Amino acid sequence: MMNIEKLFQIQKELDMKILKEHQLEGKDLVPRKILALLVELGELANETRCFKYWSLKSPAEKKVILEEYVDCLHFILSIGLEKGFLYLSFEEINAPETVTGQFMEVFANITALQFNQREENYTKLWKSFVKLGVGLGFDYKEIEESYLMKNKINHQRQAEGY
């Protein structure tokens, strides 16, 4: 099981560093975070190639797809922190019928959250995102490990003026 409280705490440290560094304290960044999440989710879909029915090219390596997945996770956690939605749970989640359909569900849930920033919509987004991860073949341990690695890279990028 992923330690979600730990991930929220680690994300909070990165977010606070970014807010301070870029003088963004007190600003509502949720719209920008939602757009960033949509872009990152599109990048993830692109690496899986699950929708590219016209192409014979294989998906990216699992490692690349996992990195894109945790890029999305960073923004989901960051949105939860900004809105105070910190009570996410893990339940047994079955793989989706299709990965393409699951991407569409996650996109729809992000859009729903954009227009109505209620905790219920955030929870639906979370569950659909976790289900997408299951559909992509990831387990909680590798998601958490990849998140921690990418978080270190994000801190380094901030230190280097990314």
Automatic annotation (TrEMBL):
Pfam families: dUTPase_2
Biological classification of the source: Bacteria, Bacillati, Bacillota, Clostridia, Peptostreptococcales
Name of the protein this chain belongs to: Dimeric dUTPase, all-alpha-NTP-PPase (MazG) superfamily
SUPFAM superfamilies: all-alpha NTP pyrophosphatases
